[in-house]
Amino acid sequence: MPFVGTGRWSLPLFILNNKKLEEEMIELGKILQQEIKSSSETRTDIDNPQAAFCRFKSKAIQLCRSTAKRLIPMKKQKLLSQLRATNNDPNLPDEDKHIVSIALQDQLNQLEIIKHDKTRDNLMARMRLENESPASKLWAKSGKDQKSRDTIIELKTSDSPPEAPIYIQRSDKMSELSRDYYDSLQREGISPTNEREEALESTLNAIMIKLSPLNKQELAKSLTKANVEEVLKLLPNGKAPGINSIPYEF
Fold first, then answer.
1. Whole-structure pTM over 0.70, yes or no?
2. What are phi and psi of 176, to 5 degrees?
3. Who is most buried in 47, 48, 204, 230, counting CB within 10 A?
4. Three-state DSSP class for 201?
């Protein structure tokens, strides 16, 4: 069995409906506005708008984590922790793992059955509202085949000898191996910095179309609040969050 890690935490969307969290986020936002205003006047390497926004995100994520822990049933979290510990226990025989995992999974299934009715009702309501609209995401997904995904059990290390290949099964190490492999592909064949800059300058000089003074003036304008709000409204929902664990809906 491959090692199953804890995974990367992602902000659960259901906590965005929590009124207390909303009020606390507004207060954090007010503090952020004050810090940005004060740091813009006397900017330093430590006290600047970027650092203030970074602190805001850290506090916001910490607040969302604590809120999620309060709202998610503790019983379910305890069962999930026990299940992960059982599956990742190297000293436990596979047969015992199987028996304990089945028992824990049965308890989790009972919890899922309890909330199933509410989820089903919500889905039926969405189907009534959105299924007849071709522009909705639900309508688009309903006509697609659901392809199964196979679990990658192990990966061979790039430096292992062909006669005695070395495989890794930990999911975190497998992720690092995949990342390093694709990073090396992107760096492969890249010219030295001076050659790249010369080629870039030569390419730009060959472009005959230039920006007009009006275009330059338009690009030099500062972004407004309306610009940011317009972009946020155009962002799609239901996408995976980035490394900061914050989805677009936040």
1. no
2. -65, -40
3. 48
4. helix
CA dist 180 and 173 (Å) reads 11
Other Cβ atoms closer than 10 A to 72: 14
Instruction: Please give the backbone phi and psi of residue 125, each rounded to the nearest 5 degrees, phi first.
Output: -65, -40
Dig out the tokens for 238 from the structure: 């239901």
Tokens at 163, concatenated: 């006669």
Closest of 170, 174, 140, 142 to residue 158, by C-alpha: 174
Could you give the CA distance from residue 59 to residue 54 in angstroms, rounded to a whole number? 9
Residue 156: phi, psi to the nearest 5? Answer: -85, 135
The b/e string for 151-185 (b: 16+ C-beta within 10 A; e otherwise) is eeeebeeeeeeeeeeeebebbeebeebeeeeeeee
Contacts of 52 (CB under 8 A, 6+ apart): 32, 35, 36, 39
Q: Which of 23, 30, 32, 22 is nearest to 52 (CA)?
A: 32
